[in-house]
Amino acid sequence: MKRHPVGGVIHAYQKYDPASFPPPTQEAPDLITPAFEQAMMYGEFRELSEEELARAVELDPSQIKGLGPSIDFLKQMLLERKRKILETYEAQSVQKKARKAFHSAAKQVRPPEDLVKTFREAINREQPYLLEALWYRGEDRGGTFSTDLLKVASRMADKHQLEELAGKYDFTGSESMSIPKALEIKEELEQIDELLKQLDEAAKTAKIGLIDMEKLNQFVPTEDMQQLEEMRRQVENIIREQAERQGLERGANGQFRLTPQAYKVFQGRLLERIFSELAPSRSGRHQGDVVGEGAVELQQTKPYEFGDSIANMDIPQTVINTLLRQGDQRPLRLHGDDIEIHKTRNHPKCATCVVMDMSGSMRYDGQYMNVKRMALALQGLIQTEYPGDFLRFIEMYTFAKMRAPGEVINLMPKPVTIHDPWVRLKVDMSDEHISETQIHQHFTNIQRSLQLARQNLAATDTPNRQIVLITDGLPTAHNEGEWLYMLYPPDPQTEQATMREAMLCSQEGITINIFLVPSWSQSEEDIRFASRLAKTTKGRVFFTSGNNLDRFVLWDYVQNRREIIS
């Protein structure tokens, strides 16, 4: 029997092939940034589950089109259910029932004589907190007073919920509801509204993980739910695959953790965002390099000039020039005019210490996150584009500590442990019985931070040295020999010690650039102090909102290098 080969079209995908979801031309979703933002907020890397990743990541909605039931279709089903409910019932009669039940329960209560006035006030004003206070006062009185109060509180809560129901939804039907039925309808309508919000978000960002599948299952047919669940699994699959590509390593317990590769990806995205916001008049961060003797060779060449280093000679082009001039004559004899030299980029070395304020006030408005984001971006910039530059990070609080770039993520503002309006403390740090853990951590020690930065910069072999001081106000701590002083409100003694240290920095040629971020407690005196400190060291003060801190620091760093070069 002759066998016929299989032919014809068996199946054709009308949308995207799930095996290659999303399309290879689609930019990969950003999985690193949400993980880093979470780590910067809480000061630690917590391993993320697949569901947490799926909820954090935004995809292009076109990627999920055709893979399951339409988001619009699901929304229409929910809206139709909501419309039927509102067109079936009316809410006026059940409000009357709730009001009557509340007052009936209140009439049955017999409060003790000393609580009668408060009870009447609670009923007339319909205040749950007054009933709660009465319950605590009457708990040990005996009788049924406490039990009756609980009944009244329950009826009051029903009345308030049904008033909220009538005010929130426009009922147009004629069927009356019992109180339990009305509360059940309220819960159902609120679930529908919540699901509609989730579906709207999923339509914008393809965050299928946001949708509460258990609640949605109450309103959607089983077949559509199965398709939606399949779509959710495919989204999780692509996120899992992209997570591993971007540096999120899967552990033995199935959780994801960040790797050094993820650091590089996150820093690259930070730099891309910062420099994409340059004003149109700027041409980018590569402008301003001076051609001359240097370590970085460029593709462009130039004829040899007296004084050029032969180490940068373009040998192939030099030989070609000789052949063009000499022809087939042998041996080849080089002339000075034949030699081509690679142009080089002159990159002078810069040394920078970044002092990051982690005192108690930096928790305000999440300023500490802006500081950490800036530090990671600056470290990424120097590592990728200026690898010869010197960079150190210093954490500033009551003390000052050197921090490695890998520790920046873990830094957190110190909790305020003393709330007195007037603080005058000093500690002998030479006492072996005293440790730093016993001392209040939330003060701001600019003087010690500048001293530590100066000691680090003094050993660098470049005249281009600067301290980037990021703080929100005046210093409130300083060191004098072995003694540590913590003075609040800020004291002239602390300012004088800080200014003395700033003068020492200035004498060693170290510039102090201050980035003053806003704070709830900031005053005119904070601004005046920053100006005095910068003026003393011929530095500058930048007043910037916290969310622009990374942009201002990096732009200033690049601009300073341009000025040094030129």
Automatic annotation (TrEMBL):
CDD domains: vWFA. Residues 182-245 form a coiled coil. InterPro entries: vWFA_dom_sf. The keyword Coiled coil applies. Keywords: Coiled coil. This is VWA domain-containing protein. It comes from Roseiconus lacunae.
